[in-house]
């Protein structure tokens, strides 16, 4: 999405609903409009023609039923901003960029844009905007949010489903902290109360930011992507890296891949791969000896054991493997420390 060589040190964010305001919520600050902005993003987004051409070709087309429009974050660059949205079904729809000062007074006329890719809206940059909003008309309610910046972070595909997640999530976060990840963005569709205590603690310590999606079930859970420990013995019996050993052959290159991205070079990103990059940039694939990802599989979840197991068996024979020995001790200690902090009863 972001432009190459863009400065991401300044960012603002907001969230909004697409419902038109009633008379009691309509804006009353039109008199504060002062800066004259372009009427359309073609005047400020330097790669607008590139976006428009790919939009016309239907690159990245996503056809889905419309859900409520709400925002996740907005990212400011020298000449333009990119706003990410949570709502689905708006690909190619006209949208309006809104600009507000620190007191949520509107400071400019709306600028016309388009939802492209499916969950992004490009906008002109406003030098005095503290917050931004996106509406399908020229009015709408808004709720501000914020986002931090880190050199290396993980965006976890939205968690969904009724199963408990606390142990797997703790291990995942502590594993990647050992790899140098500085921050975690946790997107949550469904979460049990016990696991939420863990998420709240990571947020409290500043190691994670959690975005909770609305509870309406307007599309399947997987379309949103993407009980207690008492004592050392329980952890030894259930920590996945200690008990999961039956491992498949590493999948062929590109099969359910995960990516390390410089987001300034990517226009459209799917769960497993980017489908559109800015001109001049290409994908590079890491050799399996240099990098691979361990992916836990529950044979019963989403009918995986019947739907996909035979394809994985086709890669080669399963073998018994262990988590790297030099990482096992610190991982185990860090997971136990975190779980004791969150769940241990005094």
Descriptive account of the structure:
The chain is α+β, with helices and mostly antiparallel strands. The chain has 2 domains: 11-145, no CATH class; 153-343, no CATH class. Helix content is 21%, strand content 21%. It is built from 8 helices and 15 strands. It has helices spanning 48-56, 166-178, 193-204, 232-238, 240-243, 304-307, 309-313, 325-343, and strands at residues 11-16, 71-76, 80-85, 94-100, 111-114, 120-124, 131-135, 142-145, 153-159, 183-188, 208-212, 246-247, 266-269, 274-277, 319-320. Strand 9, helix 2 (166-178) and strand 10 (183-188) form a beta-alpha-beta unit. The N and C termini lie far apart (48 Å). Mean pLDDT is 79; it is low at 1-34 and 220-230.
Short précis:
The protein is α+β, with helices and mostly antiparallel strands and 346 residues long.
The helix count comes to 8
Which residue ranges are poorly predicted, with pLDDT under 50 across at least 5 consecutive positions?
1-34, 220-230
Order of helices and strands: EHEEEEEEEEHEHEHHEEEHHEH
What is the rounded distance between the termini? Answer: 48 Å
What characteristic shape results from the CA principal axes?
globular
Counting helices, strands and paired strands, the structural category is: alpha+beta
Beta strand %: 15-25%
Biggest pleated sheet: 5 strands, antiparallel
Helical percent range? Answer: 10-25%
Average pLDDT score? 79
- Whole-number count of domains: 2
Radius of gyration: 22 Å
Biggest sheet, strands in spatial order?
Answer: 6-3-2-1-8
